[in-house]
């Protein structure tokens, strides 16, 4: 059984990755799962300087999902290089660093500092809905996406993944802009902007009022967007948004994803990544799939893929 | 490689209503009971898949001999409502024990202050603490567990509606007693902790405060449940990981 996939120039032993912001830098989950089993660990957004994030409450549960307004709290790139890379290098898995910034210069500073480290891939976060500057402000206009991507790409030694926001009208247009800017891969989707009101207390559930919705509630939106983008671009796609098990992961792959990232499911079940991986293997066993790559994009432009 | 944390299906040995909306649940797991420390919490999972996140519940009692934990919780929303319907003999998914608990210091005179659903974790604390203990328990209206504390020290009760004990809050009671205190331990609502914090800081009494915050993962990954501290290197600490117990000097309430 061949589970390996390629993101940019980087070969992953299997398609299962973690979604940024849901796995810390891997330390917490290493007490539950063997990180060696993962295709890649995508770490929490890292900025040029430490960020404090938003006030609490930062999280709220919704039907089949959750809202968060953490606001990219992180200890900064220097702390990450000193403390987290040595930890992650103990494992046989790829390291993907999600990069947060308020300005293009911020992103470039992080990228440059990471260029001589053992980080395998970079993920440009231009889609976080919880920060006023940078984040989603960059990720909802095609021209801006292309400009930020090309600027960051110029500074990066590692292949660059651009993480797209679903809070747009035409996701394919944004994907094409990132590809035109030089993205080596795309990841989608980031969280959907949402809100929850406690009608009994008559207050917002989140201190930030609005937050990013994630979890199985958003999966159909994510699958649809992966499918649309897969038809528009040539670069590989990492699909995410509500993946809870192997079957969800297979669905994303058939929609066009080369890699899959497990996010909110980690909060609900610390073993989720391993269960997703086992589920993919189980599916391949059941249907006699020898190479996981056979599944990528089955639903895209394939006339034998029935709709009834 | 060895993995140190567990999430297990544990058997519910006992489950009953002990006060309005307040339930006690005894769960059985030798490993978890052995690992549990006073002031820690566990995370309970709903069976309804629409409720993704585990519910953090403090550990009320640890029975190492029988390998059991006692949890006392209040029905607060749909998740705890669902959990309250679980029957004895059923299993429940539990993650834990989680967080850092109280550091028990065997001082001459300890004061223990609990408010509402912050009262339960203090029972095990009182069991484990040596020396003279003065226990202040505050409730909105319905009193629970108070009788069980009497075995470990002097108990003073305050209720907001005045139905039992002193009418008002525990801080008034505490100040009235004018005790010579060596160490304070507390768990309860933020308002109570804040008032207590300003008192102990002024009186220069060492105190450990257990704080609450909405959390998602319970293990330190989501960074949802932070609280502000005076630590310059890490201002926002995670309640689930670095906490829930912080020193009164450190935490900013």
TrEMBL record, chain A:
Q: What is this protein called?
A: Dihydroorotate dehydrogenase
Q: List GO terms (cellular component aspect).
A: cytoplasm
One BP term from GO: 'de novo' UMP biosynthetic process
Query: What does this chain do?
Result: Catalyzes the conversion of dihydroorotate to orotate with NAD(+) as electron acceptor.
Q: Which UniProt keywords apply?
A: Cytoplasm, Flavoprotein, FMN, NAD, Oxidoreductase, Pyrimidine biosynthesis
Q: Where is the active site?
A: 128
**What reactions does this protein catalyze?**
(S)-dihydroorotate + A = orotate + AH2; (S)-dihydroorotate + NAD(+) = orotate + NADH + H(+)
Q: Does the keyword Manganese apply?
A: no
Automatic annotation (TrEMBL), chain B:
Q: Sorted alphabetically, which CDD domains does this protein's record hold?
A: DHOD_e_trans
User: What is the purpose of this protein?
Assistant: Responsible for channeling the electrons from the oxidation of dihydroorotate from the FMN redox center in the PyrD type B subunit to the ultimate electron acceptor NAD(+).
Matching PROSITE patterns:
FAD_FR (PS51384)
The pathway is: Pyrimidine metabolism; UMP biosynthesis via de novo pathway; orotate from (S)-dihydroorotate (NAD(+) route): step 1/1
Binding sites annotated in the UniProt record for [2Fe-2S] cluster: 217, 222, 225, 240
UniProtKB keywords: 2Fe-2S, Electron transport, FAD, Flavoprotein, Iron, Iron-sulfur, Metal-binding, Pyrimidine biosynthesis, Transport
Sites binding FAD sit at: 55-58, 72-74, 79-80
Q: Which NCBIfam families match?
A: PRK00054.1-3
GO aspect biological process, one term: 'de novo' UMP biosynthetic process
Cofactor binding: number and manner: Binds 1 FAD per subunit. Binds 1 [2Fe-2S] cluster per subunit.
Q: What protein name applies here?
A: Dihydroorotate dehydrogenase B (NAD(+)), electron transfer subunit
Show the GO MF annotations.
Answer: 2 iron, 2 sulfur cluster binding; electron transfer activity; flavin adenine dinucleotide binding; metal ion binding; oxidoreductase activity
Oligomeric state and partners?
Answer: Heterotetramer of 2 PyrK and 2 PyrD type B subunits.
- Where is each FAD-binding FR-type domain found? 4-104
């Amino acid at each position: 059984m061949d589970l390996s996939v390629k993101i940019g120039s980087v070969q992953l032993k299997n398609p299962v990755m973690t979604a940024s912001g849901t796995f810390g830098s891997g330390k917490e989950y290493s007490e539950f799962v063997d990180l060696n089993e993962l295709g890649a660990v995508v770490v929490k957004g890292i900025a040029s300087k430490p960020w404090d994030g938003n006030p609490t409450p930062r999280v709220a549960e919704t039907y089949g999902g959750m809202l968060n307004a953490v606001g990219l709290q992180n200890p900064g790139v220097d702390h990450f290089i000193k403390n987290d890379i040595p930890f992650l290098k103990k494992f046989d898995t790829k390291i993907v660093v999600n990069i947060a910034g308020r300005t293009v210069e911020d992103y470039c500073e992080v990228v440059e500092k990471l260029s001589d480290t053992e980080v395998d891939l970079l993920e440009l976060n231009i889609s976080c809905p919880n920060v006023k500057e940078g984040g989603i402000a960059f990720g909802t206009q095609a021209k801006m996406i292309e400009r930020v991507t090309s600027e960051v790409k110029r500074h990066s030694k590692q292949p660059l993944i651009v993480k797209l926001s679903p809070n747009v009208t035409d996701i394919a247009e944004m994907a094409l802009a990132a590809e035109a800017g030089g993205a080596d891969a795309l990841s989608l989707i980031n969280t959907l902007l949402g809100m929850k009101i406690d009608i009994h207390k008559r207050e917002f559930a989140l201190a930030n009022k609005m937050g990013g919705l994630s979890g199985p509630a958003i999966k159909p939106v994510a699958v649809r967007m992966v499918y649309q983008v897969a038809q528009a671009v040539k670069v590989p796609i990492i699909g995410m948004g509500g993946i809870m098990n192997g079957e969800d992961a297979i669905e994303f792959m058939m929609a066009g994803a080369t890699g899959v990232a497990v996010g909110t499911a980690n909060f609900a079940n610390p073993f989720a990544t391993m269960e997703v991986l086992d589920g993919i293997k189980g599916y391949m066993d059941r249907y006699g799939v020898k190479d996981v790559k056979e599944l990528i994009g089955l639903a895209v432009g394939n006339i034998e893929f029935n709709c009834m | 490689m060895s993995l140190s944390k567990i999430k297990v299906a544990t058997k519910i040995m006992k489950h009953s209503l002990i006060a309005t909306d307040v339930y006690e649940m005894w769960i059985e797991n030798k490993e978890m009971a052995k690992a549990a420390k006073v002031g820690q919490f566990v995370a309970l999972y709903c069976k309804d898949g629409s409720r993704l996140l585990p519910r953090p519940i403090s550990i009320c009692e640890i029975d190492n001999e029988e390998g059991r934990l006692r949890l006392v919780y209040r029905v607060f929303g749909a998740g705890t409502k669902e959990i309250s319907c679980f029957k004895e003999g059923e299993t429940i998914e539990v993650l834990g024990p989680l967080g850092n608990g109280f550091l028990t210091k065997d001082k001459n005179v300890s004061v223990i202050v609990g408010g509402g659903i912050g009262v339960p974790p203090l029972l095990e604390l009182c069991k484990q603490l040596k020396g003279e203990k003065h226990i202040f328990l505050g409730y909105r209206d319905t009193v629970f567990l108070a009788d069980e504390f009497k075995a470990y020290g002097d108990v003073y009760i305050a209720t907001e509606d005045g139905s039992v004990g002193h009418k008002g809050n525990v801080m008034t009671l505490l100040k009235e007693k004018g005790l010579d205190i060596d160490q304070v331990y507390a768990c309860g609502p933020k308002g109570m902790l804040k008032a207590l914090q300003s008192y102990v800081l002024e009186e220069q009494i060492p105190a450990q405060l257990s704080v609450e915050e909405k959390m998602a993962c319970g293990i330190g990954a989501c960074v949802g449940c932070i609280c502000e501290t005076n630590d310059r290197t890490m201002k926002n600490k995670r309640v689930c990981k670095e906490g829930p117990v912080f020193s009164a000097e450190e935490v900013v309430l």
